[in-house]
Automatic annotation (TrEMBL), chains A, B:
Source organism phylogeny: Bacteria, Bacillati, Bacillota, Bacilli, Bacillales
Cross-referenced Pfam families: LacI, Peripla_BP_1
Segments forming domain HTH lacI-type: 5-59
Natural source organism: Peribacillus loiseleuriae
Protein name as catalogued: Transcriptional regulator
Gene3D superfamilies, per the entry: 3.40.50.2300, lambda repressor-like DNA-binding domains
Length: 336, 336
DNA sequence: TTGAAAGCGTTACCAC
DNA sequence: GTGGTAACGCTTTCAA
C-alpha cells in the first residue's frame, strides 16, 4: 500500500539494474528465469507499484480513456458510461468520466485542459454542433449517439429514423391519425432523425402534418410535461403522442396523470428509450428500446481497436448504426 | 489543439530560459512585466498546453481526485458524484469516477492500481467492512454515507438513526402499530442505524418488535418487491411499511401495485431517500429526504481543505453528520 | 541476458 | 529577475 517505492529500490534489493526490473515488469524483452523470479519476489515483498506517469512520459501512452457525456444524472448516459468503463477495464484501461452539462464551453474546457493530454482516446457524446470542432481532434475519438456529418470521426449511433418511423407507423396501424410528437431541439441527428421518421411515417400513410402537433423543446422532463399539457388543451387534441426520449416520456406520463387522462384509453403513448415510469404505469408504455449499454461497449471496443493500429493511415471514418426494437405494451388504443 | 509543443519550444521562441517560462506559468516567483507578456504571447501563439504529468513527477501533486462509489447507475450515487465533481472542478481539480459494484475485490483493484497513485485524494463510499482496510490508506480520504468506526478517517454521513426514528414515529402517531421494515444488510452504519431507529421508535412507544415484520435483504429493488409480497402474505400483514432506501421503496411500490393494494389506503408507506416512483404515484409517498448532492459537495470541500493543510499533524478524524427531513405526503393513513 | 546512460517535460534550487 | 541544471521515475537504445 505504500507509494514511495521506486524501481530503483527494487533493483537495488534484487541486485540487478533498473533496466532489468523494467524488462521483467513489461515482459517484452527476455530475461532469464532466475532473475525474473528474483525480481518478482522483491516486487512483491516491497509492494512495489510502478509509477505509470513516469512511464507515460516515455511511451506516450497512459492507458487511460475519457468518456465525455452531457449529463451524468440521465440514466441513458450512465448506461453508456457503464458499458464503456467495463470494456475498458477488461482491456486494461482506466476511464475518466467527464460531464459537460451539454455546454459547448464546458466541453471546450475539457479539451483545452491538460486532462485531454493524459488520455489515449475519448468516447464522446458531444455538445458541439460544428464539424470544425471535431475535425481538429488529434486523438482517437469515437462519437456516440450524436454524429456530426463531415466531422471525419468514427461513431456509434442508433437507428433514430427507423425507431421513430416504426413507433409512428404502429400508432397509425392502430387507427390513429391525430398523432403528436414531443421532441428535443433539431441540433443533432438524434433530434432531426426522430422527427424525420415521425414525419415520413405520416406522409407514407397519407396523413397531413399538423404544426400544432409537433412540439420542440429540450430533452428534459419538463418539456414533456408542459408540451403534453399544451397538446391536450388544443381544440382538437391528438389521440396519440410520440415522446422522443426517456425524460420527455416521463414528463408526458406525469402530465397525463395530472390531467387525469388514462394512457391507452384517453390518450395513446409511445416513448423512445426505456424509463422507470414507462415500465411502472399500467398499462405499461410501449417504447422504442435502444441498446444503451451496448453503445458504450461498442464504442470502447472500437476505440481500443483504433489505439492498437500502429499504422495510422487515416482510414475513412466508420459509422456503426445499432438497431432498435419497438416494445409493444398496452399504451396504444386500437381505434379500428 | 496540438499536444507536442513543450516548454522548451516556448522558451526558444520567446528567447528566455525554460525556468522563466515555468515561472511565468506558475506565477510564484516574480518576473518582469515585459518578459511575462512576451512569454504569454508565445504560449498563446504556439497553443502550448503544459504537460501536467511531467510537473506531477516533481511536485507530487496531480490536481486529480477520485470518487469511488459502489454503483454508478443508482441515482443516489450519481447525485453524490455530481456534487463532488462540481466542487472539485471549481477548485481546479479533475475527478476520476470509479465504480466498484460494491465488491471488496474490485475496490482492492482500485487501490492497488497505479491509478490511486495518480490522485491527490479520494472521496470514498467504501465496499470494505473492516477498519484495517481504511487504516492503511496513505492518501487523504473522505468517507461518504458509510462510516466504519475506528477507521481513523474523516467522513460525511447523514442522520440515519434520526431519519428512521422520525419515519417510524410518524407512522405510530398516525395510529399504526403493525409496522414492517424492509432494509438492507447490517453491514454498514446505514443499515444498522436505520434499523436501530425503527426499533427504538417502536420501543419508545411500547410496541413490541415482531420478527416477521423485519425484512433484511440487499439494497436493490427486487428485495423491496419480494419482501413486500412476503409481508402481505402473512396471516396478520402489517398496516404500514418503512422502506429503508430508494430502490427498496421502488420495489415496494411496484409490489403493492401488482397486489392491487392502494398506498395510503390498504397499506401505508414511508421511504428513505427520494425516488422517481415515490414522487410519481398518487398519493405521493412520504420519504425521509437526505441531502445527496450536498454530501458530495461537502466531502469534496473537506478533502480539498485537507489537501491544503501543509502541516500534516494527523488530526483526529472528523465526522460530519448532515440532517435529514421527513416529507409527509398522503401515503400514510390515519388510523385514529 | 544484462547494465549504463540518455532521455521524456517539467520544477526547483542555486548562481549570477 | 533570469538562466543553468539536477532531479522526478521510468523506458529504451547501445554496448558488453
Amino acid at each position: 500500500m505504500t507509494c514511495d517505492i521506486t524501481i530503483k529500490d527494487v533493483a537495488k534489493e534484487a541486485n540487478v539494474s533498473v533496466a532489468t526490473v523494467s524488462r521483467v515488469l513489461n515482459g517484452l524483452d527476455r530475461v532469464s528465469d532466475q532473475t525474473r523470479k528474483k525480481v518478482l519476489k522483491v516486487v512483491k515483498e516491497l509492494n512495489y507499484v510502478p509509477n505509470t506517469m513516469a512511464a507515460s512520459m516515455i511511451t506516450k501512452q497512459t492507458q487511460m480513456l475519457a468518456v465525455v457525456v452531457p449529463e451524468i444524472e440521465n440514466p441513458f448516459y450512465t448506461s453508456v458510461i457503464k458499458g464503456t468503463v467495463n470494456v475498458a477495464k477488461e482491456k486494461g484501461y482506466h476511464t475518466f468520466v467527464f460531464s459537460t452539462n451539454d455546454s459547448e464551453s464546458e466541453e471546450d474546457a475539457f479539451f483545452e485542459s491538460s486532462l485531454r493530454r493524459n488520455v489515449d482516446g475519448i468516447v464522446l457524446i458531444g455538445a458541439h454542433k460544428d464539424p470544425e470542432f471535431y475535425q481538429k481532434m488529434n486523438k482517437p475519438v469515437i462519437l456516440v449517439d450524436r454524429y456530426i456529418d463531415g466531422c471525419g470521426l468514427d461513431g456509434v449511433i442508433i437507428d433514430n429514423f427507423g425507431g421513430a418511423y416504426e413507433a409512428t407507423k404502429y400508432l397509425i396501424e392502430y387507427g390513429h391519425r391525430d398523432i403528436a410528437i414531443i421532441t428535443g431541439p433539431q441540433t443533432f441527428n438524434d433530434g432531426t432523425e426522430r422527427h424525420w421518421g415521425y414525419q415520413q411515417a405520416l406522409k407514407d400513410n397519407g396523413i397531413e402534418l399538423v404544426n400544432d402537433y409537433q412540439k420542440h423543446g429540450d430533452w428534459f422532463e419538463n418539456n414533456g410535461y408542459q408540451s403534453t399539457k399544451e397538446l391536450m388543451k388544443l381544440t382538437k387534441p391528438p389521440t396519440a403522442i410520440f415522446a422522443a426520449n426517456n425524460l420527455i416520456c416521463q414528463g408526458t406520463i406525469k402530465a397525463l396523470r395530472d390531467l387525469e387522462l388514462t394512457i391507452g384509453l384517453d390518450v395513446s403513448l409511445v416513448g423512445f428509450d426505456a424509463n422507470d415510469l414507462a415500465e411502472f404505469v399500467k398499462p405499461r408504455v410501449s417504447v422504442v428500446k435502444r441498446p444503451t449499454y451496448e453503445m458504450g461497449t461498442h464504442a470502447a471496443e472500437m476505440l481500443i481497436e483504433k489505439l492498437k493500429q500502429v499504422d495510422k493511415h487515416d482510414s475513412f471514418p466508420k459509422k456503426v448504426t445499432l438497431g432498435v426494437e419497438l416494445l409493444k405494451f398496452g399504451s396504444v388504443k386500437y381505434l379500428g
